[in-house]
Amino acid sequence: MKKDLISINDLSAGEINEIFALAAELKQKRKTYGEPLKGKTLGLLFEKPSNRTRVSFEVGITELGGHAVYLGSEEIKLGKRESIKDVAQVLSRYLDGLIVRTFSHATVIEMAKASTIPVINGLTDFSHPCQGLSDLFTIKEKKGFAGIKVAWIGDGNNVLNSLLFGCAKLGIKVAVACPKGYEPKKEIASRTETSVINSPQDAVKDADVVYTDVWVSMGQEKEARKRLKVFKKFQVNSELMRLAKKDAIVMHCLPAHRGQEITDDILDGKQSVVLDQAENRLHAQKAILIKLLKG
After folding, report:
1. What top-level class would CATH report for the domain 131-277?
2. Which of 128, 227, 252, 283 is catalytic?
C-alpha cells in the first residue's frame, strides 16, 4: 500500500522520531550515505513559486541517486487544461513519486486519492508538513523537546498549523500570539497544549523558541495594506526578545520581510537559527523521501 505525506497529523510520534533519526544520519553522512533512490524519478508539481522547497527537494533527490522533473503552473494548469484526477493518473504511470505545491489543500488531497504513487504535500493554504517537520527537527537539534516552550508570533497560517500538529504529537507547549481574527482554528489549537492569546509579550515570556513568519503570504496580496496595519505590534525585535529566555532561539521559515515581522538585528543575530532551519529542509525531506519510497 502506498504512503503519502499530506499532513503531520497523519503521522504518529514514533514515525516523526524515525524521520528525525534518519534525517540526523543523512545530515552527518550527506555525501556518503548512498543512493537509495537510484533509478527513481520524482515530479515536482508546483502551482506556487518556490526557492527552498524546490531547491531542497531537487538537491535531495539528486543526492539520493534519483532524478527530479519540475512541472510549473503553466505546464499543467491543474483543473483548467486537464482535470486533477487525469493528471494524477497519468503522472502515476511515469513517475515514482510526486511533490505537490498548490494553493488549495483540496487539490493535494484529490491528487493523493487519484495517484498510485506516493504524494508529498509541498505546501497548501492549510498546511506545510515538510516545513513543520524540518522546524521540529531543528528544535530537537538546538533545544531538545523536554519541557520547552515555543512562542509563535504573527499570523495563524499554514506553517503554524503544521507546527501545532507536530507539537501535539510530541507533547510540546506552544503559546500563539495573533491579532484578533487571525488566530489558528480552534480545532487545530485544541489538539495540543496551546494557549492562543493576543499579546506577543505574554506569549514570548520565558520562551525557549520564538517563531515568526510573514504577515502577507502568497495569495493575500490584496490584503497587504490592511494586514501591515493589523500586525504592526506583532514584530519580533530586540525589545520583545528580552522577555524570552536568554538562550532562546529565533526561527523564521523564510522568505522574510525584513523590517516587518522581524528586524534585521534579530534575523541576523546570534539567537537566529534560520539558516540552520533552512538547511534542515534538505535533510528532513531526504528522510521523508526514503521513508515513503523505500518503506
Report:
1. alpha beta
2. 128
d(CA 253, CA 242): 22
User: Residue 235 catalytic?
Assistant: no
CATH architecture type of domain 8-128+281-294 = 3-Layer(aba) Sandwich (3.40)
Q: Tell me which residue has cell 505590534.
A: 233
Q: 120-172: per-residue pLDDT in tens?
A: 999 999 999 999 999 999 999 999 999 999 999 999 999 999 999 999 999 99
8-128+281-294 and 131-277 share one fold:
yes
CB 72 within 8 A of CB 99: no
| 258: annotated active-site residue | no
- Per domain, the residue ranges of the chain are 8-128+281-294, 131-277
Look up 281 and say whether it is catalytic: yes
